[in-house]
Amino acid sequence: MRARLLSLVLAGSLALTAQMRMTVEQLVSFVRSAVELKQPDVKLAAYLKKVKLADRLDDRRIEELQGMGAGPKTVAELRALRDASATLTAAAGASSQPAYQPRPAPAEADRKALLAETTGYALNYSNQLPDFFCTQVTRRFDDPTGTGFRPLDTIVEKLTYFDHREDYKVVLVNNQPKDVSHENLGGATSAGEFGSMMREIFEPQTQTHFEWEKWTTLRGRLMQVFSYRVEQPRSRFRIVVPDAHLEMIAGYHGLVYVDNENHMIARITKIADDVPASFPVQDLSEDLNYDYQSISGRRFLLPLVAEIRSREGKLLVKNNVEFHMYRKFGTDTSITFDTPAPVSGDQLKEQPPAP
After folding, report:
1. Residue 269 in contact with residue 287, Cβ under 8 Å?
2. Backbone conformation region of residue 146, classed left if phi is above 0, alpha if psi is from -120 to 50, else beta
3. Are 134 and 327 in contact (CB under 8 A)?
């Protein structure tokens, strides 16, 4: 009910933006609601072109919204609003706060050096992983009417990573034992979180175009974020619709979050480009977070959670995929599997970096 009400309020707000004069607080609430409802970046940016501010917007508020998930076109419009409101009085209560000075972008030579080191890390990532197994939990949702996601099922699988290859064995579906292969689960599924997506982005033959984007903080660690784009002729991003016996290769773009201290990759986002309108699956995206996991007393940066979203006509589909209980392969293959609690959303939130 809350999601439906929020959707209706947001729809009304979007329709009124041509006449509306907003305070900064109203703008922040408006953009936050749009991001939470996954409004398309291009549409939200178009609405913001019509907004006039009643007080001054600063860089800190823009970085807060960017950290919440505001897309590049929306951020560009927010910066335009910042510039247009520069001569206005600060919002009430803001005058006592020191002016926010964003952390300066690194020098071009430092950006290139970081990207080169990150490329080496990505290309060797899979080779540095031990053989292990873990519990993969996939919670699947759909939204057929635009009023909010509803749960469909919860799948628990034993994921084995051996000799640089992933293997999946379904253990439970909705807490009941199930004898079915990963490939025959039906509906939306995913694979490749253990290095193949990362490697393809950075392989020389992919000819990925990178741009330095911003600083941010993720799980308490300072990150440098690069945007990237892979053109379709050099992509290996396969979108498969098994029921219709269809597949295609799509170009894509997204963001790569690089730990400023150790230059490891902590997050990758991926959005499909130019999917034909006639193809059954549209608006396909993935957001993959990595975190440190202990295997036999050693720490490795491994997948923590992935969110995959798509649209099939008017039907919205979402998979939340989590990875739990990493263990060395062969040490305890008789362990009992259950359905762990979901990963806390606090582990996935970005925060603006200190100046």
Report:
1. yes
2. left
3. yes
Q: Give the pLDDT confidence score for residue 189 in this predicted structure.
A: 63
Give 126-150 pLDDT, tens digit per residue: 888 889 989 999 999 999 988 889 9
Nearest to 73 by CA among 34, 40, 105, 29: 40
**Between the CA atoms of 49, 35, 253 and 299, what dihedral angle is there, to the nearest 10 degrees?**
140
Q: Are 171 and 337 in contact (CB under 8 A)?
A: yes
SS3 15: helix
Q: Is 270 exposed, middle or buried (0-12, 13-18, 19+ CB in 10 A)?
A: buried
**Most distant pair of Cα atoms in the chain: their distance:** 67
CA end-to-end distance (rounded Å), the chain? 40
Which pLDDT score, from 0 to 100, does residue 332 have? 56
C-alpha 43 chain-centroid distance? 19
- Report which of 293, 270, 299, 275 is spatially closest to residue 193, judged by C-alpha positions: 270
Rounded CA-CA distance 158/174 in Å is 15
Q: Say if CB 251 and CB 235 are below 8 A apart.
A: yes
Distance CA 32, CA 183 (A): 37
Burial of 131 per CB tally in 10 Å (0-12, 13-18, 19+): middle
Condensed to tens digits (0 to 9), the pLDDT of residues 22-40 reads 888 888 888 887 887 778 8
One-character DSSP codes across 227-281: EEEE-GGG--EEEEEGGGTEEEEEEEEEEEEEETTT--EEEEEEEEE---TTSS-
Amino acid code (one letter) for 138: T
Going by their DSSP bridges, the two strands 282-295 and 298-312 should be labelled as antiparallel
pTM listed for this prediction: 0.73
Residue 14 has pLDDT above 50, yes or no: no
